[in-house]
Actin-related protein 2/3 complex subunit
Amino acid sequence: MAAAAVYQLAQCITCHAWSPDHSMVALCPNNNEVHIYRSSQDKWERVHVLEKHDQIISGIDWSPRSNKIVTVSHDRNSYVWNKEASEWVPTLVILRLNRAALCVQWSPKENKFAVGSGAKTVCICYYEQENNWWVSKLIRKKHNSSVTSVAWHPNNILIATTSTDGKCRVFSTFIKGVDSRDSGTSLSGDLKFGEQVVQLDLSFSWAFGVKWSPSGNTLAYVGHNSTIYFVDDIGPSPSAQNVTFNDLPLHDVLFVSERMVIGVGFDCNPMVFTADERGIWSFFKFLDERKAATSSSKSGSQFSEAFGKLYGQSKPGISNDAVEPSRPRGGAHENCINCIVPLKKSGDRTVKRFSTSGLDGKVVIWELEN
């Protein structure tokens, strides 16, 4: 179903994003820097290092049309990087956070971006020409814990968030003077900034990655309880269903079409979920068939395998004979996958290529054949 091209670009990768023409990739090698690599004849050359943050960079997004890079960090700051001649120049973002910034995403029209934080707050940032900086309006007092992921609806107004309080929420981000009401959907209506559309209490554990389908009619997010949730008819009376699996939890999701979702996470192997003609979602298969075959031949409980991954080997004074040491499992990724990014041209409704990165320091490009 898929062919993988594997590139070892660091010892550990926190997050990554692609340039508009997909010739360069920006990644954080688990520190306070952004490394930009350029592809040339199937080889990768590091061409830029962006240094401005003081602590680990937790989110990167590269806008496909305006060619801007936005970064956020545990240092509570964010910068928008613009290419000027041969250098990347940072522009200050006024976040007003007292806790770490955890995730970031450009809006579809690229006139705003959203930042989730450990301050139980979402920052919606927009540019002020007269001051040459990006300012933010805050969605406060809605989350009870850290905001782990944000996802823009195609109408550029609604945004979905997940949090470690176990909930997924949808808000309006309409900003007068920045947005217009001609979004073409009744979802946004006449909602004011920060007004909550719906709160989904489907998960009883931490909630992580969240994404909208290409049409914006379906929302998918994942919980730390090895469950993925699908929600239709976002509004006062949404319809929801969940798929629970026996493998390790997912960390992020991606719609490749209206009826197919790829989930990635702690099992190191992308999982494919599909919907039938009735709209019933189910697990379809593991994407990395080599790894699926290797892991299925291993014996021992799921708990033992996870425990072995955690410790790797016996600790002094602790008997760990029954736990297999952590070892490569023969697939493209050998550690947790924490980021999945589509590789598609502007205007495409389906995703035929996407990339993943993880704690093993690899960037893997997947080609969907069918």
User: Anything to note?
Assistant: The domain at 2-247+344-368 is CATH 2.130.10.10 (Methylamine Dehydrogenase; Chain H).
